[in-house]
Amino acid sequence: MKILHLSDTHGQHNRLKGLPEADVIVHSGDFTFGGSEREVLDFLNWFCDLPYKYKIFIAGNHDDCLWNSEIDGLPNNCYGLRYSSVNIEGVKFHGIPMFVQDCVSGLNNTAIRNISLDTDILITHCPPFEILDFDDNIHYGSKELLTAVERIRPHYHLFGHIHSNNGVEEGGFTTFVNSAIVNEIYGDLQPWHLIEI
């Protein structure tokens, strides 16, 4: 199974040309810039029309209009994961969004601690601590997430959030992928990543 991973397009998804063939496309959040419903609809219209067999997305911290909201009317092959999983052709994807309200209330950390051990591909917006998370002399990643990944050992952990750390890092059991598309000044586009499981 080939999986195309994107993150942090911030309303610039229409600039993406020549996306490669894959079975699944995954967007790990921050598809909007200002978090408006109009931006969400624009992204979803684009995303749902892409020629991929399966499509998965989660919300990032910029996509806060989706907090406490349900998205109705998605095609059968498109999944918005919110502390939930989907099994696609024997591969289990689990998605953890990043809403500021959930981070403050502790819901985000509770959900991270409850990720199922049979998760094959973990999708979060935030990176784990000290893995593709460094910017402005600070590690912005989550220690709770790092602990969870070490416990679960998914094949892949897909995320974004830290625009200056687009890249791939091999771990002992898990490959970590940061596919933040727009750079740290929201100008140039950075690479997407194609993985295979």
UniProtKB/TrEMBL annotation:
Gene3D superfamilies for this protein: 3.60.21.10
Superkingdom of the organism of origin: Bacteria
UniProt domain Calcineurin-like phosphoesterase: residue ranges: 1-164
GO molecular function: hydrolase activity
The protein's name in its UniProt record: Icc-related predicted phosphoesterase
Lineage of origin: Bacteria, Pseudomonadati, Bacteroidota, Bacteroidia, Bacteroidales
